[in-house]
Amino acid sequence: MPSPHKTTSASPDRPVVSPTRRDEVAAAGSELIGGPVGRWARLGGGAVTPVRVVALVTIGMFALGMVQKLPCYNWAWFRGTSSQYTHACYSDIPHLFIGRGFADGLIPYFDRLGGDMEYLEYPVLTGLFMQVASWLTLPFDGDLQYREQMYWMVNAGMLMACAAVLAVCVARTHRDRPWDALLVALAPAFALTATINWDLLALALTAAAMLLWSRGRPLAFGVLLGLATAAKFYPFLLLGPLLLLCWRAWKWREFGAAVLGTAASWLAVNVPVMLLAPEGWKKFYTFSQDRGIDFGSFWLVITQRTGANITPEAVNTYASVLMALACLGIAALTLTAPRRPRFAQLAFLVIAAFILTNKVYSPQYVLWLIPLAALARPRWRDFLVWQACEVMYFTGIWMYLAYTTSGNKQGLPTEGYQFAILLHLAGTLFLCAMVVRDILMPERDGVRRDGTDDPSGGVLDRSEDVFVLGRAAHPPQHAAHAVQGPRVEWGAVRE
User: What is the structure's pLDDT at 35?
Assistant: First the structure.
């Protein structure tokens, strides 16, 4: 490992932060590879850099996740039994190769599918990703099972590239803390869920967008965020935290550039399909609206425990109200905090609120939070507590499906699955509480403890607060470096 005294080219006056010197859990875990980084690490020279190590570890963990899917790859996906659940190796990818017409050469959004699912129910950029993988599978000629295997393998290779991009972007977002990206690389839930679905495409684009924002490039940030939103809806929610932070710092020009870039790139991807195949294009949106209460949500626990019949329209309304209330709470926290929160902290809270209030929680949704958690609260103890809850949920849903699909009722009964859901909710709420505590008590924020402000904040980093609801108890440490301007407190402007 590199020397802890090595500096980055982006911040030559600051050493790279070594978690093994500051985090007890990281230090204890490092004993497996020789202990905390020290003077002998200098022997690695320039060839062993944090970013390269993070990328290699990410690829290694991704490969282990592929090995975990081996029982399904060999036989369990194709027998139509509960074996893919008992081995916890289920993936949507091979099933949708047939179920969404890729095996028959159908074109997403343009060609109608048979059955209840009339068109592909994924956003446009994800549909393009799936189609490209289908084209790359064409040279592998054989029976249908072999083609399914190759389709999954091609997708896994493409998703591995996305995972590497994700890890590198996280490692470079906080200039002096590249080792925090090991939280992403070594997350157990990352390895287990990476190849269930196509979420890593949106994650890689979102991580690249946040990297560009941290480098003070709001328009480029918006372009990539729009592409990420064209692959999955949730990245769009990051504009909410950005609005609040730019409001507090009075950075309206930069926020406008971000919104413009987001809208332009999203429209560039969606408008052609919207015009040429309107029925297929809108399937993702109508499917999301019409979908009822599903696995993983606390709404499912309520309906199973009470027997209540909550219609899709009703749960959409209830979930939207809860999400709106959560966003109002985050807004109040942002505008009244003693110090402007970091972008990654608010991004984590908003996406977590969306996950907690949503009517469905698929196992791979944990991927949305992993990179944000690594940037928001890079503490190994809290991160691993949360990951333990997510791994328990990952096991719980497959054992529950094994119980409901097998004739001998072997697996996890309903009450056990409800406990797994509550465990997932509790773990996520715990990490949210730790992030909120860091915002309210910035002196306890591990990222800011060494004197930094907001390394992922870009133009917000070291900027003075202009709009504050109440006097900030602790003014920004870098206020001396900020451009002085008018300050607004409780609606009054002070020159």
Answer: 53
